[in-house]
Write a structure and sequence with these properties.
324 residues, alpha/beta, Rossmann fold, UDP-galactose 4-epimerase, domain 1, seven-stranded parallel sheet, three-stranded mixed sheet, globular
């Protein structure tokens, strides 16, 4: 079966396409390479282009027997989304609708969507379940939720089935060291910690040490990128087997504080990793932890890297290689 993966040259996308190929799918990656890396596409076919290019989509769908789409292409910086909301509505919603229209035109009935825990906003309860109220606190989360609503409407009108995967904090790297996390700018905690261990940064800033948590720092749920990739393959198989549209959270179900991440990284790297206290960032919830019980029960998903140390070890192996 041939699968079109949008954004497959990105961090999560590159791991998804590798997992798909390992599970005997033929993969075509569509990526404009604005943030992705050509070298990250280690298997399958890469087409450089944008999901809003109708002529290109027509060509792809005409020349290839595409059975389903995995849609990861998006902008994902929360801070930027609040400074330039139009960019996020356009890239994450408008362009996605163009993709849906082309799928309808060519009778492609299944899509797996890379969504986000940011759709929930400040949590009312922990762990967060899929029926938690939707109240995104930023444009990024809102743009993703708008596209979820669009898919739901296309399901009702065109019978286009979808599975939306709401990630918590993706981390780690493929154990082979072949691919990993390489963002510019980098905003994620674990790679920032490891960059500090490699002296690429002189210190790490801890944003807020007065939260109502066990050590005063924010608690987050980290999920290994390979575990995320496996979930995409399982979701794809579910849709191809005729399952109805659905939404699933993806996390480890346990949280780690910022200080625990730093201490674990010090242990893994055997480096000092200087850290400095700083003011809270606006909009940072104290605790974000996922319930992944639904996807475990319904799609038989489980985490192969459930502990923080194993996640950081794979990331450290990648970071020492220096990226792409």
């Amino acid at each position: 079966m041939s699968i079109l993966v949008t954004g497959g040259a990105g961090y999560i996308g590159s791991h998804v396409i590798k997992d798909l190929v390992n599970n005997d799918f033929d993969v075509i990656t569509l990526d404009n390479l604005q943030k992705g890396h050509k070298k990250a596409v280690t298997c399958g076919k890469l087409i450089k282009g944008d999901i809003s290019d109708k002529k290109l989509l027509n060509k792809i769908f005409t020349e290839n027997n595409i059975n389903a789409v995995i849609h990861l292409a998006a902008d994902s910086l929360v801070g930027e989304s609040m400074e330039d909301p139009g960019k996020y509505y356009h890239n994450n919603f408008n362009k996605g609708v163009i993709l849906l229209d082309q799928m309808v035109k060519y009778n492609i009935k299944n899509i797996v969507f890379s969504s986000t825990a940011a759709v929930y906003g400040e949590p009312d309860e922990i762990p967060i379940k899929e029926n938690h109220p939707i109240n995104p606190g930023n444009t990024y989360g809102e743009s993703k939720y708008f596209f979820e609503k669009a898919m739901d409407r296309y399901d009702k009108i065109f019978d286009l089935k979808y599975i939306s995967l709401r990630y918590f904090n993706a981390a780690g790297a493929d154990p082979s060291g072949e691919i990993g996390e390489d963002h510019d700018p980098e905003t994620h905690l674990i790679p920032l910690v490891l960059d500090t261990a490699l002296d690429k940064r002189d210190k790490l800033y801890i944003f807020g040490t007065d939260y109502k948590t066990k050590d005063g720092t924010c608690v987050r749920d980290y999920i290994h990128v390979n575990d995320l990739a496996k979930a995409h393959t399982l979701a794809l198989r579910a849709l191809l087997d005729g399952k109805e549209s659905n939404v699933y959270n993806l996390g480890n179900g346990q949280g780690y504080t910022v200080k625990e991440v730093i201490e674990t990284a010090r242990k893994v790297t055997n480096k000092r990793i200087p850290a400095k206290k700083s003011e809270r960032r606006a909009g940072d919830p104290a605790v974000l932890i996922a319930s992944s019980e639904k996807i475990k029960k319904e799609l038989n998903w489980n985490a192969d890297y459930p502990d923080l140390e194993s996640i950081i070890k794979t990331a450290w192996n990648w970071h020492q290689k220096g990226g792409f």
